[in-house]
């Protein structure tokens, strides 16, 4: 796959389509050929506005065909697209354009005052509106500028590589056998670079792509009949819950009837969820990657192992530190470095090109990778012993009646606590039996692995937006704060009871 050849691949394809469905259900469809014609028109508009190779075009807008068109048009003009998340606050447009070094800003956000370099997603920029002082460089291998919050919640800007983009897409096509008969649905923001990789992939192979809002995703999946999906665990958990409520048919039919495979990543997924999909004949495959390096490991239709994130894509590019942390050093990483780390020091990129993932993992004898947890999530006990919460959680995965168990540090004792969601939170007998089963499991573990304090939750925190990052991952610090608050409330209740 080559980005400079992308336009030639889809310009004459009159059979494959790009579909846009908005929040009201309104549907818009164009063929790849028509998409190319419109991209050329948008590129001409950029040129007329004063955009030249090396300029930076910003976009802060909701998903849609117009978003894709501005992206493709920027490529045609040699500009670099800078993608902002939907929640990005623009404030003063002039200051925003200057601060981010933009030649033009495409946005659907409501702003208090106008600026010549602002244009609506479906609008036409004015002639020669690019600020005279707009920076212009030599992009070289730089394809795009994107933002990612990761698990830390700290916003980081990443320089996305052309070669890295081409490499990831080429390997995906090779390993998953996607082609012109496929149809893909995207519902996460296009400002998330993974979604743009999917768009480029579909345009390259001549597959259909559907852009849908997350509020309508389950209806869209049934109606549009995708053949593959890429989504975070919360999507698959929710889909399974909705399927069970329907009370009939198969899970495959509930998901449109055309699914060949589905991929999950971005956050850990429950083993029970994976098993439920496979039991229904739906191939849900776990994968692992990061925007910094690109994909690192994945399960495929041919080679898969539940509970692992699959085999290393490039075994020779991955090494492990003595404590199990993964390092990646490949010729074409997806990103070549940060352009903005929000003031946070970061040691992700080493001078020799090695990327430090911050993830701990192990390889089994067959080469499948199992992740143990994030370095930044490591819990230091009062004994000085370090433990990975995900590894401890796996030791309690078999406790009957538990929907979710999250391990956190206790705020006072420096030991391990857990937030537990029972299958029926109102069933006092079940809650009591869960306590007993956790105590029984504790007895078989070493002292540093034991959970010493429990807090019960009515709903899983992994499915609660209040405890998730912008990338739909569980925020461990927020989970720990939830535990501390609940534990404090329980202590106060007990104190009040004793004072009566």
Automatic annotation (TrEMBL):
Stored Pfam families: AMP-binding, AMP-binding_C_3
Highest taxon, organism lineage: Bacteria
Looking up SUPFAM superfamilies in the UniProt record yields: Acetyl-CoA synthetase-like (SSF56801)
Query: Domain AMP-dependent synthetase/ligase spans what residues?
Result: 7-314
PANTHER family xref list: LONG-CHAIN-FATTY-ACID--COA LIGASE (PTHR24096)
- Record-given protein name: AMP-binding protein
Q: What organism is listed for this UniProt entry?
A: Streptosporangium jomthongense
């Amino acid at each position: 796959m080559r980005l400079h050849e992308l336009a030639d691949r889809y310009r004459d394809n009159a059979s494959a389509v790009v579909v846009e469905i908005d929040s009201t259900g309104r549907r818009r469809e164009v063929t790849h050929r028509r998409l190319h014609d419109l991209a050329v028109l948008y590129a001409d508009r950029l040129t007329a506005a004063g955009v030249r190779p090396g300029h930076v075009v910003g976009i802060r807008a909701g998903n849609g065909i117009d978003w894709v068109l501005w992206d493709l048009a920027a490529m045609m003009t040699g500009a670099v697209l800078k993608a902002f998340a939907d929640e990005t606050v623009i404030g003063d447009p002039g200051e925003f354009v200057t601060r981010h070094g933009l030649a033009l800003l495409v946005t659907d956000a409501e702003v208090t005052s106008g600026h010549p370099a602002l244009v609506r997603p479906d609008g036409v920029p004015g002639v020669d509106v690019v600020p005279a002082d707009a920076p212009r460089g030599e992009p070289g291998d730089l394809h795009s500028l994107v933002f990612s919050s990761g698990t830390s919640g700290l916003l980081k800007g990443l320089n996305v590589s052309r070669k890295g983009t081409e490499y990831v897409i080429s390997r995906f096509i090779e390993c998953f056998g996607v082609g012109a008969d496929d149809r893909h649905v995207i519902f996460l923001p296009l400002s998330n670079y993974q979604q743009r990789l999917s768009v480029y992939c579909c345009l390259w192979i001549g597959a259909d792509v559907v852009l849908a809002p997350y509020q309508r995703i389950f209806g869209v999946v049934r109606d549009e009949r995708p053949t593959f999906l890429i989504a975070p665990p919360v999507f698959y958990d929710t889909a399974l819950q909705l399927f069970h409520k329907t009370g009939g048919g198969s899970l495959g039919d509930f998901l449109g009837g055309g699914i060949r495979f589905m991929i999950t990543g971005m956050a850990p997924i429950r083993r029970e969820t994976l098993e439920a999909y496979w039991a229904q004949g739906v191939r849900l495959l776990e994968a692992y990657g990061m925007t910094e390096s690109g994909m690192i490991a994945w399960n495929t239709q041919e080679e898969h192992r539940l509970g692992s994130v699959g085999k290393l894509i490039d075994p020779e590019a991955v090494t492990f530190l003595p404590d199990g942390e993964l390092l990646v050093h490949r010729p074409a990483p997806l990103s070549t470095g940060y352009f903005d780390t929000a003031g946070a020091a970061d040691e992700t990129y080493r001078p020799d090109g090695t990327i430090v993932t911050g993830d701990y993992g192990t390889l089994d004898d067959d080469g499948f990778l199992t992740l143990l947890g994030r370095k930044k999530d490591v819990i230091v006990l009062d004994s000085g012993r370090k433990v990975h919460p995900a590894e401890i959680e796996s030791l309690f995965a078999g406790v009957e009646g538990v929907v979710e168990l999250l391990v956190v540090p206790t705020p006072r004792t420096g030991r391990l606590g857990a937030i537990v969601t029972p299958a029926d939170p109102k069933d006092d007998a079940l809650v009591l039996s869960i306590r007993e089963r956790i105590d029984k499991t504790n007895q078989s573990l070493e002292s540093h692995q034991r959970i010493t304090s429990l807090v019960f939750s009515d709903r899983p925190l992994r499915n609660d937006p209040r405890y998730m990052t912008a990338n739909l991952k569980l925020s461990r610090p927020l989970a720990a704060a939830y535990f501390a608050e609940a534990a404090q409330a329980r202590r106060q209740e007990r104190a009040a009871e004793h004072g009566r």
